Amino acid sequence: MNIQPLLNYISKIVTLTDEEITFLTSQVTYRKYLKGQYILQQGDINKSVCFVVSGCTKMFYVDTDGQEHILMFAVEDWWSSDLGSFISQTPSDFNVQCIEDTECIVFSYNNMEETYAHIPKLERLFRKTIEKAFVASQKRIVRNFSMSAKERYLIFRDSYPEIEQRIPQYMVASYLGITKEFLSKIKSQIALQ
Amino acid sequence: MNIQPLLNYISKIVTLTDEEITFLTSQVTYRKYLKGQYILQQGDINKSVCFVVSGCTKMFYVDTDGQEHILMFAVEDWWSSDLGSFISQTPSDFNVQCIEDTECIVFSYNNMEETYAHIPKLERLFRKTIEKAFVASQKRIVRNFSMSAKERYLIFRDSYPEIEQRIPQYMVASYLGITKEFLSKIKSQIALQ
DNA sequence: AAATGATGTTAATGTAGATTAACATTTTTT
DNA sequence: AAAAAATGTTAATCTACATTAACATCATTT
């Protein structure tokens, strides 16, 4: 099991001792998924938090009309999980599905308390990571309220150019909260300028 | 300075020793604001996180057209802060203003590292608090994408009946991401049923 | 109690983005 | 290389909500 990508990521935020690295290695597992596979399905209880080593996942909600709404993508060095289901161990509102073959390092709910207790630095790391995710989420709410779909698309394109390249356009539309037809219109309009 | 409300809040999540309580008391300050006063203004760097003891605040963004978009309210036992500005010490995107006379217990950025270092349990508390806030924020994004304004209003009303009672309707509209005129229409429509 | 400002309502008109549907293109499977 | 599946485009029509504007009510100040 190669957890080097996770260690590299961690080392940017906190410094672990050799002993802590050994302990961490014993707490996580490695898992490969094929394109199309579900890591989590709406209604199931989420037992794990995945650190993406390679590939890409989408987290989405299927509403009562069967419409899919994408909340986030996760690529290399990102975390992929329905945190709500994880922290309260209640049925998930969301699906997490791989849109490429994906390799993950997995933290299990059962080990989490022990991991935090043994390596408080990791609790710090997760606090900081979630702080950033929360801030990004609030900014997204504001953008959805105060900006047009075109403006939001341009920001997405500029913020995540690598992600836009590797996912189909209808998923970008879903992430932006618009239809694929309207995103198509926006793009042709941008192309004319 | 009476920090009992904060201690009561903390005791629901983690248990502090007497020594830790003494230390915490030395790290925070008490502050009163009048209705209308700003705790934070867009563009300023946020130096503090407030725990609301009494009163009510709103956090909002003023867009380029001068329109106000409310992100959250904070009443008793809630946290009120632009976390993005706080954690990165960069100019704030948001305003925090008191919509009632408000009393707060204030954590200062300068003390925060020391507080976490001295009371790791508080880092745990903040991790959990922010986890919940993040989850709520994600659910709000999904609701904004998948539900009508009427459905969102009904959920707000059922989730925060006390808050709806104490704030003007045009602020509820702003929080929901609609105009006050449209919320008025929704309410009269509900009344007819 | 009059005046002022803040908040709420109603109705007409406008628009960003949804829906539908038909077709075009690209990718994957056989 | 043909067929099938997935993805993307275009255009007509529809709708949820915004905008504007005029007025109504309530709260606060003088």
Summarize the structure.
With 193 residues, chain A is an alpha+beta fold. Chain A has nine helices and eight strands. In chain A, 51% of the residues lie in helices and 22% in strands.
**Structural class designation of chain A:** alpha+beta
Mean pLDDT of chain A: 96
What's the level 1 CATH class of the domain at 4-119 in chain A? Mainly Beta
What is the third-level CATH name, the topology of the domain at 4-119 in chain A? Jelly Rolls
Please state the CA-atom Rg of chain A, rounded to the nearest Å: 18 Å
Element order of chain A: H for helix, E for strand: HHEEEEEEHEEHHHHHH
Query: What kind of sheet is the major sheet of chain A?
Result: 4 strands, antiparallel
CATH superfamily of the domain at 4-119 in chain A: Jelly Rolls
Separation of the first and last Cα atoms of chain A: 50 Å
Largest interface in this structure: A-B, 33 and 33 residues
Beta content of chain A comes to: 15-25%
Show unreliable segments of chain A.
Answer: none
